Structure formats: structure tokens, C-alpha cells
Input
Amino acid sequence: MTSKGILFVMSGASGVGKGSIHKAVLSQVEDIRLSVSATTRPQRPGEVDGQDYYFISPMDFEERIKNNEFLEYARVYSQMYGTLKSEVVETLHSGYDVLLEIDIQGARQVREKMPQGVFIFIQPPSLEALVERIHGRGLDSQQSIQDRLDACHAEMSMARYYDYVIVNDRLEEAIYKVQAIITAERCRVKYY
Ligand code: 5GP
Output
């Protein structure tokens, strides 16, 4: 796959603050677009279909897998999530950078298909901090919280497969670091 824009892939354990970081980055950095993912999970209060996610049925999701519409997809905590090729390819071709905010299994698939992407791993300062954050947002059931924490143990060792690691200790600093990475990548001689 060739492209003009740069693909940035931000990943890390659930609850690590990826969502807050990507929202801030999108509002502060020009010429970058979020790839809106498709998911089978129920819409949460305040979420907008087509903006936060495309909320689709499991049957629709299966159909799109068969039609080869996904760049990557994964089951995350018993729901399906996937990046639509249409969200990424056309945007990159039109010269905009694209930001993906996806789980670690998905990031691995994207790395195989688009190794020219820039892969950023967001890490919690500690497991205790992550527990507090997931409880604090009050969005998840007890089982779902336990699933997320179990996955996190394994996920925290994945940083070495990425180009950059950011410890999300202070949100403002993490946002600044992602912006700095985007700025530096755009200055690479190969894009000159
Ligand atoms: P949430 O349900 O809290 O919005 O997201 C749960 C997890 O799914 C997060 O770790 C998020 O990064 C991940 N996720 C969101 N969209 C995608 C996607 O398109 N593909 C993959 N593989 N993971 C995704």
C-alpha cells in the first residue's frame, strides 16, 4: 500500500488514557484525521454514531469481514472492533495523516500490512493507576474490569514492538509528547 499521508497508530492497554490523548491531539494538530472504527459494542451515553464509532450489528460485522473491508479487526473484551480500509486508505491518499486508536492485537496486524506506519505505545505509570482509572470512569461492569486488568498484565510487556513509548503519568505531558512525535515524523527527509 502506498500513501502520501503518514499513518500514526496509537495503542496500549484499555483505560490507559488513549481516548483522552487522541481527542486532544486531533483538536490541536492540523491535517490529521481519526479513523472511525466499527464496533459491535453497545453505544455509551454521549457517544455519536459515525463520530466515535460506527455501531454495527455482529451480523453486519461478519459481512464486512467476508467482504475484506477491514485493515484489521479483533475481539476486545467480547466485542468486535475493526478499522475500515476505507477510513484509512482514502484519507492517506488525499494527503492527510491518519490516527488509529486501537488495541494491541489490531496494532500488530496493521504493523504487518503497513510497516511504514508510526507505532506509539501508551503505557500506564503503574497497574495500580490503571485500576483506579478504569474504576473511576464507572463505565464498565465488574467482569469487564477484571478482563481488562488481566489483559493489561500481558499488554504492558508489548512496548518493545513499537517505535515510541509514552508513559501516561500526566495527561498534558503525554499529549505534548504525541504532538512532538507527529511533528518530528513530518520533518523526516523522506517526506521532503
Ligand atoms: P472502548 O470500548 O473502551 O471504546 O474500546 C475498547 C478497546 O478497543 C480500546 O483498547 C480501543 O483502543 C480498542 N479499539 C477501538 N477501536 C478499535 C479498532 O478498530 N480495532 C481494534 N483492534 N481495537 C479497537
Observations:
- The chain is about 40% helix and 20% strand.
- The first strand starts at residue 7 and ends at 12.
- Residues 76 and 103 are 8 Å apart (CA to CA).
- The chain has a mean pLDDT of 90.
